Structures are given as structure tokens and as C-alpha cells.
Amino acid sequence: MKVLFATDGAKQSDSALDAFKQLALKDGDEIKVVSVIDVGMPLAVDIYGGYLPDTTELEKTAKENADKVLDDTLTRLRAICGDKKIDITSEILFGSPESRIVETADEMKPDLVVVGSHGYSGWERMLIGSVSDSVVHHAPCSVLVVRTPKK
User: Fold this and answer.
1) C-alpha distances in Å from residue 122, one per residue of 45, 119, 127, 129, 149
2) Among the ranges 28-32, 48-52, 124-128, 134-138, which has the highest mean pLDDT value?
3) Which residue from 67, 73, 116, 141 has the highest number of Cβ atoms inside 10 Å of its Cβ?
4) CA-based angle 36:30:143, to the nearest 5?
5) Full strand arrangement of the beta sheet holding 112-117
6) How far is 75 from 34, CA to CA, in rounded Å?
């Protein structure tokens, strides 16, 4: 089985990671873990001065955070897989999370994409979008959307 696992390091991703305990993984399976850095341009740019803000430090911090998220996720995945010979890789992607996850799925041809759901209400989804909803509707394979249990 080939699995694409998308994480942003939030508690919803932790819940999705816990779902791996329920999957019947075996020797020879592949898991690719991705974290997407959304590098959308700021909307407020002074069109008269032509000033584009320097985002170098912001991008550096975002990459460091994504590195940490991937390292933590890989450590937990390896613990979940135990002694099984599973090929686990990771990659930091840049761009819109929903489109980069779907593009990676198109390239990788996984059997399953696993994502966590933030559980937004209808209004929140309308205002900020839903990555999991977009992946469900555009991925070329099955998608497991894992919700975080309510306390």
C-alpha cells in the first residue's frame, strides 16, 4: 500500500497520525509525509512605490517549523510501524496546501491520502476554506479524513 500523509503539525494531524495504528500496514508499504508551506503573497502592496515586503525571515521560520513537524511525525510513524520494513519519506512543499497535496497525489499515485480535519463550521469553511474538503473532491484516490475527538 502507498499512503500520502499530509500534516501541518496541529492536533488534527496528530489524530490523523493515530489512525495509522488502525491501518493494516505490512513490509514493503510506502508512506510519504508532506507538510505544505503556504507562501501566498501579501494582498496589501503599495502599487505606487512598488514595494514588495521582504519575506525571507518569515519563509525561514516557516521552513524550520515544517522541518520540526516532519521530524516529529517521522519519529512517531516509525514507532507506530515498529519492526515492519516500511519505506517512509518526507518532503516540504510550497504553495497552496490543497493543490500541492492533490498534485503530489497525482504524481505519487498513492492508494490512500490521509489528512486531519480542523472541523470548521460552514461559515469558517466559506471564509478560510477547507483543505480536507478540497483534497476529498480532487484527489485521484481514496482519502481518509480524520476528525479530532471532542473532549
Assistant:
1) 30, 9, 9, 10, 19
2) 28-32
3) 116
4) 60
5) 87-94, 30-37, 2-6, 112-117, 142-147
6) 14
